[in-house]
Design brief:
This protein is an alpha+beta fold. It is 16% helix and 39% strand.
Length: 75
């Protein structure tokens, strides 16, 4: 599943990325790294962007960006 597939309140663990490019590197610099816990906090009324919580801070991403992030369900 990808981060874009998740709904508000759902938690997961980042398991990887769909591609390896400069944008993915930027996401990793923001704390979106493999093994990090991530939670979808809320979505805008139109569904884009989505707000996530990772490493104790909030981050907003567009759905196309969130679709690049693979997530495993949290245990």
């Amino acid at each position: 599943m990808t981060l874009a597939d998740m709904v508000p309140g759902q938690r997961g663990i980042i398991s990887g990325f769909a591609q390896d490019d400069p944008f993915t590197q930027r996401l990793m610099q923001l704390g979106l790294i493999e093994g990090a816990d991530i939670e979808v906090v809320r979505c805008a009324p139109t569904g884009d962007p989505i707000e996530v919580r990772v490493l104790g801070y909030a981050l907003s991403l567009r759905r196309v960006e969130a679709a690049l992030i693979r997530v495993a369900q949290a245990p």
